[in-house]
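Blinded run. Sample ID left blank on purpose so nobody reads anything into the name before looking at the predicted structure. Input follows.
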Amino acid sequence: MSTTEEFRRNSDNFCYRHPDRQSFVLCQRCMRTVCSECRTPAAVGVICPECMAQQQSAQTPAQKKAERRWSSRSMTVVAAGRPRVTLTIVAITGLVYIIGLIPGARGLISNLLAFNSYYLIPQAGVFQPWRLLTVALVHDGFFHVALNMLALWFIGRSLEPLLGRARFLLLYLLGALGGSVAVALLAPGVWTVGASGAIFALFGALLVIGRHIGADIRVIGILIAVNFAWPFVLAAINAISSGDFLGSLTAVGISWQAHLGGLVTGALVGLIYARTRTPALRGAQIGLLVGLSVVLIALLAIPAVIFG
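Blinded prediction complete.
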């Protein structure tokens, strides 16, 4: 992500110990920006090395003995910099795909995990809400899962340390939920698979957060536009010979609805994170995220009423 001059002049956007490293996380005690290498996870938030040293100096002999026995600061700091949530999601998704290669297992996995708004209508007699999220685990072929996980890795290894593990995981899950909600509203009864909604949520959050901290977001914006427009471009090319754009768009087999839902949801989550960055606003952050989740779930009542 390239940066503007305004961004580079604002030291709050960079780790106070490593001025060349961009970060979005503050020490909960001194409120200075710290990078993934310099922060230690605490009970709530993270602590910078200087505050950690002060905290350790105030410990009793019994507390120091317990800390030496059960943990080590160097291990904790190193672990904090690894995109563990990203790697875990990639591993789980890859495992589901590999299991699906077993004869007879692919159809079973799709029947259990793929998304269709039909399963959210209680009147249909089958109510399976877990599909809203598990759709992100199922993919249609090697290239589908490979491209999604590659995108997740490239974005996650930068965005996860920037946000922290818990916030990153919540963003991914809400993105998957938002993508499924959009499919339920705009393409009811259509089967969908893939993590595209969650991936576009990461794009949306990165776009908003980058704009908030003064980064140059033009490259991100172009990347989002190209990826979102791709199914429409393919449909337009196919429609030249068929004359049916909507039919061609459906035949492309790319759920632009999930892309749109994930992108909007991710942008909203990114805005919440950006505007409630400090520990003093943590309560507001939680409340807004809960409110967004409630709104997304409430939107599912629309297809249930219309198509029930």
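Unblinding after everyone has recorded impressions. Residues 84-307 form a domain with the Rhomboid-like fold fold (CATH 1.20.1540.10).
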